[in-house]
Amino acid sequence: MSAGHHRWLYRPGDSPLHRLPAHCKLLGLLAFVFAVVATPRQAFWAFGAYAVPLAAVVAIARLPPLFVLRRMTIEVPFLLFALALPFLAAGERTDVAGVTVSVNGLFGAWNIVAKGTLGVASSVVLAATTDPRDLLLGVQRLRGPAMLTQIATFMLRYAEVVTAEARRMRVARAARGFHARDLRHVAVLAHSAGALFIRSYERGERVYVAMLSRGYAGALPAGADPPARAGQWLAVAAVPGLALAVAVAAWIGVP
Questions:
Q1: According to the 3-state scheme, what is the secondary structure of 144-174?
Q2: Count of CB atoms within 10 A of residue 94's CB?
Q3: Residue 110: which residues within 8 A CB-CB, separation 6 or more?
Q4: CA atoms of 33 and 39, how far apart (whole Å)
Q5: CA 195 to CA 191: how far, in whole Å?
Q6: Is 229 helix (H, G, I), strand (E, B) or coil?
Q7: Residue 80 CA to its chain's centroid (Å)
Q8: How does strand 93-96 pair with strand 99-102?
Q9: Residue 82 near residue 113, CB atoms below 8 Å
Q10: How far apart are CA 17 and CA 58, in angstroms?
Q11: Which one, of 7, 11, 134, lies nearest residue 68 by Cα?
């Protein structure tokens, strides 16, 4: 139970962005994403304007561009769907490079690609500069759903425990000469998965009883971090404030 959890997205550092309180960064992310989503899709210039401060934030956080790009591959399925829209959508048609496509589909694809990419990139920056535990404490400080926050906390804490248990079971199977090669071995793997589930369930019961014996009454103790300073709020508000101004300008300029 003392094993630490993996930090798949978090990149330890001491940049100004790393030092900002998690709940401030969460609110800043929500405001930035709201401005991006609210922007009319035909305001092409606005999305370029959003990318500039976002790139500046990546530089301030000292995140390697390849690090960010690799973690943005999660949006690839959505990009593939967006590429299919010009061919699947109905409505007015036009020719692009000799291919007939839907005008609405083109705008829809652009809308998904531009807004989705900016949203995913900003989320990756938040995850890379905020420890997962601090992120959950930030949600708790913002009065997020208590039950969901507790579930996420336990998942984060014990994911490595369950993974280590699965690793030990795999080593034990290999020590007995078992190597999965074809469908005939599915039954063995299914039994192992069932045993892992039972062990995890029993461990969870023991952990819950231990928590009750230590006074757990349905709520985790709140974080003791000091409140954010005015300067920190101003630093976080810079990018969302600029994004909101761009969104308003985009709407004013829409014909």
A1: CCHHHHHHHHHHHHHHHHHHHHHHHHHHHHH
A2: 12
A3: 41, 44
A4: 10
A5: 6
A6: coil
A7: 20
A8: antiparallel
A9: yes
A10: 9
A11: 11
- Give SS3 for 244: helix
Q: How far, in Å, are 54, 92, 187, 196 from residue 183 at the CA level?
A: 48, 50, 8, 20
Number of residues in the chain: 255
Dihedral sign, Cα of residue 237, residue 62, residue 12, residue 75: positive
Give the DSSP H or E segment for 95: strand 93-96
Return the closest-CA partner of residue 247 out of 112, 44, 45, 46: 46
* pLDDT average per 10 residues of sequence, the chain (255 residues): 55 89 92 94 92 94 92 89 82 78 85 92 93 84 80 78 86 84 80 88 86 78 70 90 93 74
Indicate the pTM of the whole model: 0.77
C-alpha–C-alpha distance, residues 87 and 100, integer Å: 8
229 Cβ contact list (under 8 Å, min separation 6): none
Residue with tokens 């630093």: 235
Long-range contacts of 14-18 (CB under 8 A, 24+ apart): 15/60, 15/61, 15/62, 15/129, 16/60, 16/61, 16/235, 17/57, 17/60, 17/61, 17/125, 17/129, 18/61, 18/129, 18/130
In the structure encoding, which two tokens stand for residue 229, read together?
A: 């300073």
